[in-house]
Amino acid sequence: MSGNDASAVTRVVVGVSGSLNSVTALRRATALARRLGAELWPVLAWEPPGGDPAARRAGGAGPLLEEWQRLARQRLVSVLYEIFGTERPGVPVHAVVVRGAPGPALVATADRETDVLVVGTGRRGLRRPFAAQVSRHCVSHAHCPVLAVPPSPLESELLSVHRRNTWHLRLDTRGL
User: Fold this and answer.
1) Where are any strands of DSSP class E within 112-168?
2) Rounded to an integer, what distance in angstroms lies between the CA atom of residue 11 and that of residue 106?
3) pLDDT tier for residue 5 given thresholds of 50, 70 and 90
4) Is the dihedral of CA 52, 54, 55, 57 positive or negative?
5) pTM assigned to the model
6) CB-hemisphere CA count at 13 Å for 55?
7) What pLDDT, on a 0 to 100 scale, did the predictor assign at position 27?
8) Any bridge partners for residue 147, and if so which?
9) b/e map of 41-76 (b: 16 or more CB within 10 Å)?
10) Most confident residue range from 1-15, 40-54, 146-160
11) CB-CB contact of 9 with 143 (8 Å)
12) Euclidean distance between the first and the last CA atom of the chain, given in angstroms as a whole number
């Protein structure tokens, strides 16, 4: 973006789930919002367990839906508190909880051409072949610029330690 385009950005919308990828995206979005003088819109998208068809089939789904909505709000507040603590991020924050699949919910929230949508790219592999599905959806359907943030290098290190522990492999301490 050129300097002229930056002044037009009004919101930086970022997908937040609490995963390490979304935390990395939230940190990047916060820095971007500060630099551009924009508002930060962290968005947590949620769906009823089993999806909408299961929620419709469940008798008395009203109280359950309210509880799931409350839990989603609580999750978003918890993630924001973990990242920012009691300090302010330095930009206006408008936290949003949206019912729906993450990709479509993020694209619907970042509905202005002057928005910037920030998403974590997820990680791929045998265990999570569809992990990047949300970022792919956002890149192909958004009407605003999308910043796809790659996974934190810390994540690959954590996965390596987890794999080593799972397979009971010895730790090579020569490099420590």
Assistant:
1) 116-120, 146-149
2) 13
3) low
4) positive
5) 0.79
6) 17
7) 93
8) 118
9) bbbbbbbbeeeeeebeeeeeeeeeeeebeeebeebb
10) 40-54
11) no
12) 42
